[in-house]
Protein: histidine kinase
Amino acid sequence: MKKWTLQVRLTVVVGVILLSVCLLLTANSLLAADTYYGNYASLIESGQVELDPAWIEADRIDPAAVSPGEFYREASHRFSIQSLIVMALLVVLSVGCTYWTAGRILRPLRKLTESVREVDDMHLDHRVATEGAKGEVLALTESFNGMLDRLESSFSIQKRFAANAAHELKTPLAVIKSSLQVLEMSPQPQEEDYQEFMADTGESLERIIQTVEGLLSLANLEAAPVGETVELRTLLDQAVRELSGRAEECGVMLAVSGQAQPIRGNASLLYRAVFNLIENAIKYNRPGGRVIVTMEQSEENVCIQIEDTGIGIEADALPHIFEPFYRSDPSRSQQISGSGLGLSVAKLIVERHGGKIEVTSKMETGSVFRVMLKQ
Ligand code: ADP
Structure:
């Protein structure tokens, strides 16, 4: 029965039920007939009851050829045979109808199965048509299409991730290679040549290390413990102190205010998240600009807001800035250093703490990043 199709299984189950019910009903009616009319034969034979002429006509048995009692027994035998034949015919007809109807009902499911077979990682854009589907099949088709949407988007994010990671590592490696070639080609390299080579190589290696560290922290975040008590204000002060030199270099004013109750989390991870956000607010700013870090406490949440008066983020870029390796055009074209991993790491850290991160931005005016953490 395991290999039978659903259509056949349904038909067999309905057939067995029908057969049992019909057999019971027929047996019951035959027994009832015998109970109520069984003694007619002897009554007719003893002459107490006359044969009904309507029976004689209906049964087409010559009453002159047989005794009235035999006539009655022959008629009741024929009645039993006819009942059984009609019952068998009805069962066969009903089983046929069940098979046909089950086939029609299951047709959308078969179509769905065929469409599902056509989907593989090369055809994730394939969608199952919902025309003609109703009820549960429609719900199943829609859920399946929804799952394909999610799969397609995570496949394309993965592909982009791999391509970007390769690109991010390839660029500094190419710089090291070409510096080495330049050094090899010069017949008698001078000390300045070596110094230039070392400076270029050092910079490129630093970029490779940054990228690898970012990738490692993305991979390790899931398992990081988040059970210690964290004083958020201390953490913000620390990050602001560490970045104050950088802010000064860029001519950006940096300020922090607000208080909040301690939360449960991982201090070094949260430090990393706020550090990345404040560092970005300085990096993507302008001389004379400001970065204001504020913290507010509500009943259930702590909100840390990092507001800058920097270059802003294009509306098209906003949905992507938290993707690993994503860098918007202005940051690339203005050659602001970065690996494109800062925000994705910050987002993962905040989510690991059960919080969320939001951003609003206006080009040439500035951006506001809000981190909401549970108390
Ligand atoms: P990185 O800064 O290393 O490029 P991030 O993941 O930190 O990578 O940021 C991703 C992109 O988001 C940046 O390249 C930049 O284009 C944009 N971005 C992030 N923060 C800001 C900000 N405060 N102002 C303007 N653009 C920003």
Observations:
- Residues 301 and 375 are 5 Å apart (CA to CA).
- Residues 276, 280-281, 284, 308, 310-313, 321, 326-328, 331, 338-344, 367 surround adenosine-5'-diphosphate (CB under 6 Å).
- Strands lie at 228-230, 253-258, 263-265, 290-297, 301-308, 356-362, 366-374.
- The first strand starts at residue 228 and ends at 230.
